[in-house]
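Q: Please design a sequence for this.
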């Protein structure tokens, strides 16, 4: 049940045309306490970073419904009536944020390629803001985020046209490649690749598959994460609407749906289930759990897919 106190606690953002893609990720950043507090600790106005504009926005947002003019200007968004990709602009914001504030989202992957002939290894490290998970068909017709992570981190074979050049063998050889997380970010972002190229239609399309969204996930080296925010997309590739569903850090039984200027409260979707089904989840935000926390990684029950933030309402 929504109370006036709950609804006054958080506020919305004005949509300046079709800027809901920006509003959805800004609300997640605001509701990520460590990030918000890092931005609010800003002691200088270095024009190289977007922090000062985020600080002003967060101050306004803590008091009432806010505008995003300065953020739009800083990101050089002029066509405000044109729908853009929320993931793309989330990355743009983080890249323009000071390293001290953005570091909680920064992870590092280590990729090891092993020659099948001489066993020589080639290691390459790379930073990431999010992990992209393709929507691979499953036998049940429902995509599983847990299975997607297993697929992402499994050892892959490089053969045929994908053979690698081995300096020690001085020729192209078969090889195996394995990725592990070298540095686990405090916040793990998973990108569900709903926008993909279709060779059937020879164009990009939107994939509206059901997805099992788990409350907790485990990535390489047994690091556990717990879901706290979801950016959703409704509609097709060229038009649609973004919203965000975010857990209240002060009361984890409550989630809030942010739909531009409208803010509504929802109960936790995970009171008695381990996952929910969603046809609209696009960006998943998971917060790192303390090592040794005992949580089941296996879904035990789930509800039917629904629309909007009701995806994250409790299933009876």
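A: Design:
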């Amino acid at each position: 049940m929504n109370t006036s106190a709950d609804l006054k606690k958080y506020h919305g953002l004005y949509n300046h045309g079709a800027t809901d893609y920006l509003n959805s990720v800004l609300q997640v950043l605001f509701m990520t306490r460590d990030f918000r507090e890092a931005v609010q600790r800003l002691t200088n106005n270095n024009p190289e970073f977007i922090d000062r504009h985020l600080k002003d926005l967060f101050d306004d947002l803590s008091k009432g419904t806010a505008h995003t003019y300065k953020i739009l200007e800083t990101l050089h968004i002029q066509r405000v009536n044109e729908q853009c990709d929320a993931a793309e602009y989330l990355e743009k914001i983080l890249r323009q944020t000071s390293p001290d504030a953005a570091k909680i989202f920064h992870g590092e992957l280590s990729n090891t390629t092993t020659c099948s002939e001489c066993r020589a290894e080639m290691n390459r490290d790379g930073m990431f803001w999010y992990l992209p998970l393709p929507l691979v068909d499953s036998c049940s017709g429902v995509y599983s985020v847990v299975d997607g992570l297993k697929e992402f981190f499994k050892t892959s074979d490089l053969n045929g046209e994908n053979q690698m050049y081995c300096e020690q063998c001085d020729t192209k050889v078969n090889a195996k490649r394995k990725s592990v997380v070298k540095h686990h970010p405090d916040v793990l972002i998973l990108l569900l690749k709903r926008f993909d190229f279709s060779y059937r239609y020879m164009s990009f399309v939107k994939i509206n598959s059901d997805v099992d969204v788990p409350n907790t996930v485990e990535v390489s080296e047994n690091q556990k994460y717990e879901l706290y925010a979801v950016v959703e997309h409704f509609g097709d590739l060229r038009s649609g609407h973004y919203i965000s569903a975010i857990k209240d850090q002060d009361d984890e039984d409550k989630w809030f749906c942010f739909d531009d200027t409208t803010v509504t409260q929802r109960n936790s979707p995970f009171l008695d289930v381990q996952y929910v089904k969603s046809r609209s989840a696009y960006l998943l935000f998971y917060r790192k759990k303390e090592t040794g926390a005992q949580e089941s990684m296996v879904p035990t029950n789930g509800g039917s897919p629904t629309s909007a933030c009701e995806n994250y309402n409790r299933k009876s």
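Q: Thanks. Anything notable?
A: The two ends are 15 Å apart (CA to CA). Helices lie at 4-9, 20-31, 33-40, 51-61, 69-74, 86-95, 99-102, 145-153.
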